[in-house]
Amino acid sequence: MLKIYFFTPFLLIFIWAAESSAQSNSFLALYKEQLPYFQELITGGQYEEAPLNYEGHPFFQTRVFEEGYLLINGIKYTGVPLLFDENADDLVTFHPIYKQKILIKPEKVEEFQLNGDFLFRRFQGNKSYPHHNNGFYEVLKDGEIKVLQKHYKDTKPTKEIGKYTYKFIEDSEYFYWNDGDFVPIRKKKQAIQSLGLSKKEAKRYMKERNIYFALEREKYILELAELREGKGEAFNGFTK
Predict the structure, then answer these.
(1) 127 and 234 co-located in one domain
(2) Rounded to whole angstroms, what are the CA distances from 240 to 55, 133, 135?
């Protein structure tokens, strides 16, 4: 896979270059020369900030840019400053010349990673799910049966009278995915049945590992997928 390292050194160069117009002009030339793919990345337009009367922020974990990578057309761009807007399901980067937050067109993004730990991928389908939007899901397990988590933020009016009239509320849901099919996992029974497992074998497996759905939902969902893949039998799709 081709890797292109571009944002981190260019941001450092930009800080240095801003000290004089001559240096800025030199940086601009270098910028144009070194980033032939840049226009393809940022053609989503300028990012619109949340209103000042909204409490909190719409981003995943932090409102501060984190270094990550993008995979676009099979090309891996590393050292990219990224923010993930969970409310709009949009990916945002920073333009080092105009010092603006810029949207990245979601249809161009295959996957991205934030802070070296959180892998997101764009999935087609699941249109009936109200929070699907641009289709970005965190990949928790990347096997034949994938475990996905959809992070999203909604807004709701605040009850108190004051500076803020709305606030961001964060939530998420889990899905199994296989060969284009999504299964939302909301109940233990549903998770077991969707993978074609019996209640008895799932109970025995989880009891040996001291994992309980009500206490550790994410861990339970992940282990259940491991159980199904470890059976050594062909998986022919989810049981509806």
Answers:
(1) no
(2) 41, 24, 22
